Fold this sequence. Notes:
The protein is built from eleven helices and 22 strands.
Amino acid sequence: MRSTLFLRGLCVVALLSAPIVIRAESFFLKMRSQVEVAPGAGRWHTITKRAEWDASRTAVIICDMWDDHYCRNSARRVAEMAPRMNEVVARARAAGALIIHCPSGCMNFYAETPQRKLAQSAPKLGTSLPLEGWCHLDPEREGELPVKIDQPCDDAEPLRPRIRFYNRQIETLEIAPEDAVAEMYEPFYLMKSRGIENVLVMGVHTNFCVLGRPFGIRQLVRQGMRVALVRDLTDSMYNPAEPPFVNHFTGNDLILSHVERHWCPTVTSGDILGDGTTYRFPDDRRPHLVIVMAEDEYLTGDTLPAFAIAELGRTFKLSFVHGDAEVRETLPGVEVVKEAELILLSVRRRNLPPEQLDLFRAHVAAGKPLVGIRTASHPFHQRDKGPDHGLDEWRDFDAAVLGGNYTGHHGGDLKTFAKVAEGVAHPILDRIAPEEFATFGSLYQNTPLPEDCTVLVNGRAAGISQTEPVAWVHTGPGGGRVFYTSLGHPGDFEVAAFRALLRNAVHWAAGDLPVIVTPRP
């Protein structure tokens, strides 16, 4: 007797008692990784590439999703993301992936279960490299982690002792009959015995167990497995009271960037579910600030990321886009602008493909805010010629969006100064002293500005009688808040008044967005 069964994309022909898989389902994944702009640059492009993984040759490793934890906030976040994780795991299981539950230290709880015995029965196959009991940070490959973790728990109340508070995996996660419950090297043996080449990793904590466990990312990559971290179903142990003093979720993002740069790409739960959605923790209410940098004169590719992490990382979700080191006419990873609630722009005379420039047009037309510094007054056009074939320009960006009137600049050898405009009160000027302060770089010429601009700061150059507006606000053509400053020389980032001006401007531009500030300790 012969019958055909269709199981969530799997077409199985049942012949007597031996099912034969005719077609395996695939996962279509958007693999996000980071590549250095140029060797030694210290700046990174965020690149997304599509990949297709055969589900039958894929395992899902669930790392340390315990039922409790000494850190109360950590335990709460595990419980919050567990329902979404269970949904994703169910989908992966139905597609034919092997699900391996790895709640370390809890094997006694599962000792008599068939899922535990399945893991123990896997043959101990040889490996090209010795398996390590814990994979520590590899300084030759990855350098230091971007967050400090001396006291990683972010609980407000006094810490509980770092003793065992867990007994099993959180009950929200279903352990199906065909799953495995494993520890140490068992996941690796089980995957090798089944010819599995692809591994999706999820669970906690990214900067500890997810990287370091014997079944974690470092080990899997070293053993030649194809690995991806499900970045919205993981969490790091990080306390905002420690360097770099950013929001907990920004700290987690920094760890994800570290993984994407040095170990493996990341994907989202929506890739596996096929709906394109991304899980977000309930407390993660950060507006998404995308910082776009593509200019060679003022080194904002270096100064802006450092400034953003130090001054804005307690408030905003940060994404960085850099110009290409070899091809001027492209911004790798600029698609993230579609997700931006706010753009900080530092670009100089770049003609772009229409589909890239249209991202900025759409942002402005939608009434979303924009902050520009220095060369953002001439970002998307050449001085004396039009764009080459296949490229686009936005020649009136300065006037239409910023409300500016850039016509050139005074000599760079002249000392420059800035001072808050007389009689102007504005939130951006909060805690900026009225006294004149020294600035760096040449003084841009923008006089006269249209009447619908509000000048906040004026500047002067030594020996030049004409002052110039160097910071103002404007309403964009779509109704969004716009701030621009012609300051932004590397030396300006060492000036407290300029840092306050730019920090305040980003917060002001965010306007009614849910700006939640995590205070410094």
